[in-house]
């Protein structure tokens, strides 16, 4: 194993810290834009957020939303929050469409960055060479990318971890993206429906209450969440058989 580890090419400073630099640049731009807009317009933070939501509701809003979703992993921003927002703004149907497009573009972007900058980060050797989630799934990804990515999506492992890990390990892109599309559907529907059960205008107006939540979409969201976990368990049992 030491021979394998020694063969890994050394990482440059940029190779080790590129994502932190990109994330810092994105957050500085976002925070600067947010504060600048608030100062110029005299808006409170809540009013600025409401203006952003109104912008997303314009005809060009979906394109902006998809762009935000695509760039999201570079800023370490939660996919769940962006998915909930999509459901709250556009409802179950169009929210799902825009989230599926944005999430898979973001997965492709993170995979590409991982493939370009991740060489040498993960040594060969699988579970013995690394620990935790990476140690459990690295060797599986090398041997069976499609099934492993599908399971990782269905059990709701951190979305970006799966993307970057797949890129680091240089798994073939086609099984990666196909498994991502299929495996992410239960989670996508779960959080889009959860977002759609909320009235975002009532939240901004301070009128939010439990009684305002749509119970049917929320129940369906929970059912899909559980179904995804059950399917993942069955797939793992089949894989280990």
Topology:
Blueprint: H1 2-7, H2 13-41, H3 45-56, H4 61-71, H5 79-117, H6 132-143, H7 145-154, H8 159-168, H9 173-196, H10 200-204, H11 215-240
Helix pairs in contact: 4-5, 5-8, 5-9, 6-7, 7-9, 7-11, 9-11
Please characterize this protein's 3D structure.
The chain has 241 residues and is an all-alpha fold. The protein is 76% helix and 0% strand. It contains 11 helices and no strands. It has helices at residues 2-7, 13-41, 45-56, 61-71, 79-117, 132-143, 145-154, 159-168, 173-196, 200-204, 215-240. It is flat and about 55 Å long.
Summarize the structure.
With 241 residues, this protein is an all-alpha fold. It has eleven helices and no strands.
Name a few traits of the molecule.
mainly alpha, 76% helix
For the biggest sheet, the summary is: none
Beta-strand portion reads: under 5%
Q: Could you say which structural class the secondary elements and strand pairing correspond to?
A: mainly alpha
Helix content: over 70%
Per DSSP E runs of 2 or more residues, the count of β-strands stands at 0
